[in-house]
Amino acid sequence: MGNTQSAIKYPGYTLVSEDEQMILVKNEGGDQFVIKKFDRGQENNLNFLLQLDHPHIVHHKEVIAGPDCLYLVLELCEGGDLTQKIKHKTQEADTFSENEILDWTVKICMALKHLHDQQILHKNLQPKSLFFTACGIIRLGEFGDIYEWSTDAHTTDTEALAYVAPENLSGRPYDQKTEIWRLGCVIYELCELKCAFKARNPVEIVTKILTCSYEDLPNTFSEDLRQLVKDTLQKDPEHRPSVNEILMRPFIIEHLHSMSIQTIEELYKTLDVMRNLADGLETVHFNTTVSSLTGGVVGLAGGITSIVGLILTPFTLGASLIVTGVGIGTAVAGGITAGASNITNMVNQQTNRQKITKILTEFQEKITSIICCIQNISTAVETLQNEFSTSSGSLSSAQSGMRVGARLGRGLGGIPELLRLTQVINVGKIAAQAARAVRVAEAATGVLSALFIAVDVFFVFLDSREIHNIRRDYALKSSRQESTSNQTTGLNDQSPNNSDTTNLLPSNTDQVEEMKSETMKFVTKIKETTEELQTILDTLRDALNPNSETPNTDNLEFVGLPPY
């Protein structure tokens, strides 16, 4: 009865759970989403959320019109919110590393920039409005106006008061510089695990905010980070940097650059995992066929589904049988009981389809984040280079340099770093690659979408029909190899690294179309996809490569500083 009611209430979705905090639903594919209720008449105000497309903003899927209210469908961020992470760190008497703090800060800034560039204000920036996906990607959500309109919002006045900017307490309207104050409050809380303006009651909180009274960050944090907090928590909003100016700070650009390179290296490893999956499935295919599909491998491991679970072991347990040298075929044929036990545990916790989907989702999320980083690096470095393009040694140039240095947080002492940065990073190359990266992102989305479909098809057809089709495909391959062996004499001698397992793969498009086994179709699709993604990663890595030439530092003299 409950499912029938939810189908009427939320067409296309089935109710999973509902409480005061959240309505959780799932679609026909089993993917879960959050639904929030809103009063009728807010449709225009909700629709703009559907247009926001950014890797660090919560994805809003659709608005459903009910008989007496509206339902906003948005992605489920399974990693919880930042408030929960801060609480956990406090309970564990632990702290966030500065790299974590900086990483989240940069991504929040990129999300704010996306909004501010469109003259959109978030109006509710605080730890509770920052969420994490299952893959750990931070997302900005719970927009202020929208959050206030929601019929299921639950935030105490005192809790929200700690993030209010002093000008708002004095009656001035909310603007972009107000958002920067809230950003400073979030960064401070990440560092100290407590609110900057925490007090016993609302009156004390207001007093602290109006006097800008908070404890300085300790010297254990870098000068750059401490200066950023000071600048964002300036009482006069005119003295606070804009989000664009924050993203132009040298230490922020350097973090964007190094973070992107590190993420690309991680994605190369993910491609290796996907290749191992394809190799493992291919080996299983070979071993099941040579066992004549009568007990043997399939019977011992509990069927192909269990074998797939064993192949997916490295994704959950971190130890690949293929990589460690045991080999999937050997492990299954040898009856490794620990492996079989792990399969049972994994299947109980999460389906194999979900594991593969998570790998692909993480790849997609990280790719889009990298592209966003490249675009921000391009904009920031190009702007900085333009600021210093008139470095003729004149007084006006020196004054301009001083203003830029002060605006970006390090005053005169930051100018050498700024100049070096604009020369080390090839701005022309970055700008060109930033435009190309957008097209690369679209290509990656298409490639991954096709593989998502292949995953679904693969797991739907993992049943007795698959066993029959494996036998058919093996016979087909054997027949073709025998008929062409006379024409390819000596080919194997020229390619000693090719194994019998590799030869099971179709060699052309016609064979792929004739192939019935979903296992081998899936193997082929994975291999095609990994090659395309390899090219995409190579392109992004090339975009981030710094200029190999030694930077020219002679221009440092125009501000009265010696060249390095």
TrEMBL record:
<dbReference type="Pfam" id="PF05461">
    <property type="entry name" value="ApoL"/>
</dbReference>
<keyword id="KW-0808">Transferase</keyword>
<feature type="region of interest" description="Disordered">
    <location>
        <begin position="478"/>
        <end position="507"/>
    </location>
</feature>
<keyword id="KW-1133">Transmembrane helix</keyword>
<dbReference type="Pfam" id="PF00069">
    <property type="entry name" value="Pkinase"/>
</dbReference>
<keyword id="KW-0067">ATP-binding</keyword>
<dbReference type="InterPro" id="IPR008405">
    <property type="entry name" value="ApoL"/>
</dbReference>
<dbReference type="InterPro" id="IPR011009">
    <property type="entry name" value="Kinase-like_dom_sf"/>
</dbReference>
<dbReference type="GO" id="GO:0005576">
    <property type="term" value="C:extracellular region"/>
</dbReference>
<feature type="transmembrane region" description="Helical">
    <location>
        <begin position="443"/>
        <end position="462"/>
    </location>
</feature>
<protein>
    <recommendedName>
        <fullName>non-specific serine/threonine protein kinase</fullName>
        <ecNumber>2.7.11.1</ecNumber>
    </recommendedName>
</protein>
<dbReference type="GO" id="GO:0005524">
    <property type="term" value="F:ATP binding"/>
</dbReference>
<dbReference type="GO" id="GO:0004674">
    <property type="term" value="F:protein serine/threonine kinase activity"/>
</dbReference>
<comment type="similarity">
    <text>Belongs to the apolipoprotein L family.</text>
</comment>
<dbReference type="GO" id="GO:0042157">
    <property type="term" value="P:lipoprotein metabolic process"/>
</dbReference>
<keyword id="KW-0812">Transmembrane</keyword>
<feature type="domain" description="Protein kinase">
    <location>
        <begin position="1"/>
        <end position="252"/>
    </location>
</feature>
<feature type="compositionally biased region" description="Polar residues">
    <location>
        <begin position="481"/>
        <end position="507"/>
    </location>
</feature>
<keyword id="KW-0723">Serine/threonine-protein kinase</keyword>
<dbReference type="InterPro" id="IPR051131">
    <property type="entry name" value="NEK_Ser/Thr_kinase_NIMA"/>
</dbReference>
<keyword id="KW-0547">Nucleotide-binding</keyword>
<dbReference type="InterPro" id="IPR000719">
    <property type="entry name" value="Prot_kinase_dom"/>
</dbReference>
<dbReference type="GO" id="GO:0006869">
    <property type="term" value="P:lipid transport"/>
</dbReference>
<keyword id="KW-0472">Membrane</keyword>
<keyword id="KW-0418">Kinase</keyword>
<dbReference type="GO" id="GO:0008289">
    <property type="term" value="F:lipid binding"/>
</dbReference>
